[in-house]
Amino acid sequence: MPTRRSFLSATGAAAALALTGTLPGLDAVGIPHRTDKRPLFTLGVASGDPLPDAVVIWTRLAPGPLEPFGGMDDRTVNVEWEVAEDEYFRRVVRRGTAHARPEYAHTVHVDVRGLRSWRHYFYRFRANGQVSPVGRTRTAPAPADQPAVSLAVASCQAYYDGFYTAYQDVVRRDHDVVLFLGDYIYEVGVGPTAGVRNQPVPVDFAGEIVTLDEYRARYALHKTDPDLQAAHAAAPWIVTLDDHEVEGNWAGYVSEDGVPHDDFVVRRANGFRAYWEHMPLRLDQSPDGPSIRLYRHLRYGRTADLSVLDTRQFRDDQTSTGGWLPPDEVSQDPARTITGDAQERWLLDTLHHSGSRWNVVAQQVAMAQLDRKTGPDLELPMDTWNGYVGSRDRVLCGVRDRQVRNFVVLTGDLHRAVASDLRVNFADPSTPAVGTEFVTTSISSGKDGVDSDATGKALLAENPHVKFQSVQRGYLSCRLDSSQWTSEYRVVDRVVTPGGTASTRATLVVEDGRPGTHLA
Predict the structure, then answer these.
(1) For position 18, what pLDDT does the model report?
(2) Which of 87, 367, 379, 422 would staple 373 via disulfide (CB 3.0–4.6 Å)?
(3) Is 329 left (phi over 0), alpha (psi -120 to 50) or beta?
(4) What percent of the chain has a predicted confidence (pLDDT) above 70?
């Protein structure tokens, strides 16, 4: 019987597939029938990256989601798809056939074109006589339109740390789009009972993932969660990755664990390949070996320009361990970059040429200075923009000099909620704000959390630009219109057991034309 490691080990076939995108000897001819009659659509459906006339729809065939190859064989399967204006599919507007290929883990990405702007659509798939769950999506507004937009912001969903209760609230509140800002999976081993979930998982989930098939299996485990599936089916998602989709605290081609360069190149390629396979991303975003183009620009009419960043792939190595440390010569080096030169130029050019009311950056790690040490000395999280002061200065000075309107940064990673004003000079509280950052807390990572801890109290005491913090689990729910941006920090009272209750912990507002935020 095949195993994950025998299928795609860290050498040989694994390297060939992750680095070139193909495996020799695979049959690419669609087949009409399979003898396995188990449900195929066990991982649900998803949509993403909406444009005014298009959206990506996604699914994966996996009758045995935690088995090697998802329980599939090595043949291609024809998958029919439909997009309709109504949930009963009486008004189908687009349909076609895609191919679920084994070299892509039998995933399907369809870039549906020719749709109407700012409209809800329903979609589904059919394969081997089975029909998928129905998903709902929404296209972006037309370029000249300026509707109010609602969005959810989420990150960090360690499967073993808790249930995805917050996604129930995401669905109830009916957002136009969901932004996911990294740590969709975690690369570390999952125990035999999946942590607090008390759910048996195969024994080979116990180790840290390295091979392509191991990354694929980890996505499958996460995607079996019903609340995550419901959130994907309720609205389109716009996604980017952080570190744990590959390895904790990786930077560029530098491994956290000191893995030799060539081995880490293969691991990075494996992580990128599995990430793209399991996200509702376009075909032209599929990775080229150990490289993937994730930074991109999406526009929501004249309401918002959204720049999605990648602060992992092109960064210099973080100073020391990347933990909370005093500033040093490395972190203060003006030449250091967290985005790479090309992405930084692209970001500033995009912001400069925006004609939208709100200029939004969706990215991974905290941009505001976050000092947690009482007194005049500083202790900062070096894995964030705090360890790349040169990058932060260039971006924030660029925002100021270009007079970028209503600059809002949305961030994940910290496992805590933090709302801050963004200033060119954080050491001087009188420096005018040039924008606002909202850091969302984690969906489950860190287990239940608390309202405040010692670090949170220090953040409020030592950083005048920090307006709010909390260490509870949850997400960020935002509404933006022509006059203001409203952010609600939605928290759940528990995640280590199911059935938690969601509530609004704090509401903060940014007014049009007035950089910075305040509690409502």
Answers:
(1) 59
(2) 379
(3) alpha
(4) 93
Radius of gyration for the chain, computed over Cα atoms and rounded to the nearest angstrom = 22
Write out the two tokens for 135: 């998903």
Quote the pLDDT of residue 23.
38
Helix, strand, coil tally for the chain in percent (to 5) = 25, 30, 50
- Name the nearest CA neighbour of 369 among 441, 309, 424: 424
State the Cα–Cα distance between residues 109 and 99, nearest whole angstrom. Answer: 9
Q: How many CA atoms lie within 13 A of 254 on its CB side?
A: 14
Tell me what pLDDT residue 16 has: 52
- Which residues on neighbouring strands pair with residue 519, listed in sequence order? 508
> Is the whole-model pTM more than 0.70?
yes
- Which two three-digit tokens encode residue 371? 């000092």
What residues contact residue 226 under an 8 Å CB cut-off, 6+ apart?
A: none
Backbone φ, ψ for residue 424 (5° rounding): -65, -35
Average pLDDT value for residue range 466-493? 98
pLDDT for the residue 320: 76
Q: Are 10 and 263 in contact (CB under 8 A)?
A: yes
List Cα–Cα distances, 30 to 70, 100, 123, 150, 266, in angstroms: 18, 9, 22, 40, 30
- What ranges do the domains of the chain cover? 141-519
On the question of pLDDT at 27 being above 70, the answer is: no
pLDDT for 31 equals 44
Q: Whole-angstrom Cα distance, residue 148 to residue 520?
A: 19
SS3 category, 140: coil
Assigned fold of 141-519: Purple Acid Phosphatase; chain A, domain 2 (3.60.21)
Rounded Cα–Cα distance for residues 272 and 266 (Å) = 10
b/e map 292-302, b = 16+ CB within 10 Å: bebbbebbbbb
Q: Half-sphere exposure of 109 toward its Cβ, with a 13 Å CA cutoff? A: 17
Instruction: Say what the pLDDT of residue 11 is.
Output: 38
Classify 438 as helix, strand or coil: strand
Question: What are 24's two structure tokens?
Answer: 């020799």
